[in-house]
Amino acid sequence: MRAGLFVWLCASVLLVMSLPSAHAASSIDVYDFPNDQIEARYRALIEEFRCPKCLNTNIAGSDAPIAQDLRKTVYRLLVIDGLSDDEVRGYLHERYGDFVLYDPPLSYRTVWLWFAPGLFLCLGVLFLWRVRRATTLAAPLAQDERERLATLAESEDR
Amino acid sequence: MNEPTTAPNSATKGGLARFVPLALFAGFAVIGVVGLFVLGDRHELPSALLNKSFPEFSAPLLMDESSVMSREDLIGEPLLVNVWATWCPTCKAEHAELLRITQDYGVPIVGLNYKDDPRAARAFLARYGNPFRYNLVDADGQIGVDLGVYGAPETFLLDANGTIVYKRVGDVNPRIWRDELAPALKALGVELQANTGAG
What are φ and ψ of residue B166, in 5° steps? Predict the structure, then answer.
């Protein structure tokens, strides 16, 4: 009986987890596209921009009003104004800054963002190298140390 | 046998390397503290529009939706543009300060009523007082997008040429007025004389 209940519980949890999440559903707006190519470009672009209000979600995956407005803006720029992908990126970057781009351009403000990981990697490698060198260079025991070790080991045995 | 049994050469062998983990920890701690307290709220994005021209727009007025204003109407003197809505609690919180700024210092404030219900907005101003010279209506948030607005309230300071010289995301409060807005206005040559006295 218990086991049957458990299986049922697991099955329902899995079912709930497999349902399309609110995250995926939120980006379904009703827009008409003149052709599939433009629609594909629209889908790719809204995946690309970060929602300014919600830190770690793109505008495709956010229900925030500002994300809806930005999707509408991307649609307008692509379909009505006929801009290229780069022009759309430029339009949003001009207004919302580096923040909306997940791939921020290299500038004096983003130097740390780009190079800190490499710097930390180098520091880590340097540290490991020094630790390894220190252990391999450990001096062999002197005669009196070996004798002391032997007596210590002997006393432990008793 | 109870005396410390550190090998005589371990201090020199370990040397400064012993302090590397401590130094790394201290480094990360400093980065954390800077991130938390110095850089402050990550929700506050630096405005990409600072020192750029206020974008072109065409918007009806809240009080008279048949007349339309454009960027040209904002040019001529330094003024504040305040993005607000009745659905925004922080806008209500800053309302008294906006009233004080116009009434006491005569600083012109143009409202941008952002994605709001115009009737609710008019009722709000009738009830709580109107600090705005006039209000532009941005019904669908398009002007907001052009301004890089991502949440109300936001307040822009424009110089006489219509260039954005300052932006505040969040409420305008007495501290922001004293430390940021008033000095920025003075830097534009605006004389701020409090009319609080005899009136």
Answer: -160, 145
